[in-house]
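Title: Prediction job returns without error message
Component: structure pipeline
Severity: low
Priority: P3
Assignee: unassigned

Description:
Job completed but the reporter wants confirmation the result is attached to the right record. Sequence as submitted:
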Amino acid sequence: MSSDCTHDCSSCGGCGGGFPTVTLTFADGQKHLFAVISVFPWESGRYIALSPIDALGGIGDTTLLYGLAGDPGDLNLEKVPPEHYAAVEEAFKQSLTQMLEDEPS
């Protein structure tokens, strides 16, 4: 559970539906909590799929894709260039499919 959680998690199992969470601070100073759906490779880079967490700790249907840059202790998110977005999205879908196949039944 994230320290940003503001509700009683006893009924939901924790923020982010069981996914790891990360708090991002935007340029305007606002902080938002996201579930980390997947970190996956594409070509020579690494990418991350994030889903916003609502006030009740749930995740919705929105998935945001970003490139990862920097060192593990100091990662930065980079916008995926429009000309690469479809390929990165396909790599995410393949990553998600593999993750679901690897889950115990």
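Comment from assignee: result matches the submitted record. The two ends are 25 Å apart (CA to CA).
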